[in-house]
Amino acid sequence: EKEPNIEELSGLGIISHRIGILKGFLRDQINSRLYQGTSNLTNTLRLCHTKICNLPSTDKPYSKNIRASLIPDNEMIMCGTDLKNVEDNTKRHFIFPFDPEYVKSQMTEGFDAHLDIARIAGMLSEEQVENHKKGIENHKLIRAKAKQINFSAIYGVGSATLSRNMGISKKEAQTFIDAYWSRNWAVKEVAESLKIKQIGTQMWLLNPVSKFWYSLRAEKDKFSTLNQGTAVYVFDKYVENAIKLGIIPIKQIHDEFSTNIYAKNKEKNTELLKLAIQKVNEELKLNVKIEASIDYGDNYAD
Hints:
The chain is of the alpha+beta class. Helix content is about 45%, strand content about 15%. It has 12 helices and 9 strands. The protein starts with 11 loop residues before the first helix and ends in a 5-residue tail after the last strand. About 25% of the residues are buried.
């Protein structure tokens, strides 16, 4: 039970974190402008950003005004674009040669990978899955558990870690892990097919899409290094094409970037961004189509 004498302090840590972000904005601003920086690259060549990074989403407590404080120049609007489920799609690209039917099933309308794992694990029946999709039943909590396993099993999580993170028993965690690998066996096949070389004590992995060699820190990280590195490369190609078409990114976070435009140029800007992602698909020729979402607003929260 909550301690009445300290109940008023509930959420204080969250509020302090939000205030810290806004103080950081004020500290780093130059003439009311923020300039995003970068500190280094990860081993998958993702940029590690500074000054504008790790911002909580608008649906989190005390968060909306953080993103809303990032606004475009006068008389301009902000455009935000990000790649849709990019790591899921690059994963599908790699497993397609090993398990094409599974990839095709994932691309069908209404497919839900999280409900699918819950069904295989015996947590939901086929009927319950269909009723959840139709809104007749609500299995949101079970789906949330399955979602966490989908995002962690692929990168080698064990039952002890998963049970601790999800607050479930090791037996239940292992059931989810077994269900995941029975469905995603092709991921291991992809990992075993990769070209690895060792120089001294350092292992390197060749990415067949980017043709870059990536630092491989452990054998268990082969697929995560491959998949995350590919997702970064796909996004970077999108940014490159956008720049070549005259779109200037002002902020980038993971697989999204923003630009400021005049409202009258909104339609033209959308056409150019669609052309930029089209060029990515034409150049890389992946087994799946990469798509980008494009949104507009008066500030970053919008």
